[in-house]
Amino acid sequence: MDFPRALRERRARRHLSQLDLALRAGTTQRYVSFIESGRSVPGRNMVVRLAESLELPLRERNELLLAAGYAPAYPESSLDDPVLAPVRTAIDHILRGHLPYPALVVDRGGDMIAANTAFDLITEGAAAELVGPGTNVYRLALHPDGLAPRIRNLAEWARHILTRLGHLEELRAELTEYVPELEPSAAPLGFAVPLRLQSSYGELRLMTTVTTFATAVDVTLAELKLEALLPADPATAEALSAAAGLMASADTAATVRPPRTCSGP
């Protein structure tokens, strides 16, 4: 990777001028110009400051350092590394605490790391090869053998999924093939687009939240996302509680260790 070009592209992507970046990084516009033209070679600390000022993800910060000829600054640990044991404990606690509502943890590419037992209601009827740790949750959502046949508002929900896949071009191209054309809706939009999913407990109306580890300095940890599904109406809340009551005795294991699925109490 050519460092001056990489820096210019990332600055332009964030719609920052050279002066904007210079002020954020505590340097001058002239020096940034010299770096981007290849006339000056920044030190390692300056590259880190520029990457931080651009608010790049940790993976991209490491890539920028490598392009400048420096070693990465941020480690990338395996999730089963002992150093991330507190993270696994925290994930397990959060997944348990979200019951009786479904929740899962995915990595940067949307591959499932773990899920609580309530997520089983979401995946019922899906092909086995699309379900479970290591499988891709975006493919599960939109594949014809996954959730798609049960999603009542597939076109709207698919657009919500596809807008999150800008960094996954091949997957986005694949999933786009499964998505119907979106027709403008005359109905009120409400406060959020719900997932309307048919289930053995009737139609579930769910909204999603995404949680990340905000202060992470490990690439793996920074890229984890906890996706929690919440009921958008009282009927869905009642259905999820009823389903959890039946599932409660199925499994008492609770360790979050890839590639096993986190289970409920």
TrEMBL record:
Pfam families tied to this protein: HTH_3 (PF01381), MLTR_LBD (PF17765)
Span of domain HTH cro/C1-type: 7-61
CDD domains: HTH_XRE
Superkingdom per UniProt: Bacteria
InterPro entries noted in UniProt: Cro/C1-type_HTH, Lambda_DNA-bd_dom_sf, MLTR_LBD
Annotated coiled-coil segments of the chain: none
Alphabetical list of PROSITE patterns matching this protein: HTH_CROC1
Cited PANTHER family: BLL4672 PROTEIN-RELATED, BLL5781 PROTEIN
Protein name from the UniProt record: Helix-turn-helix transcriptional regulator
Organism: Streptomyces yaanensis
Taxonomy of the source species: Bacteria, Bacillati, Actinomycetota, Actinomycetes, Kitasatosporales
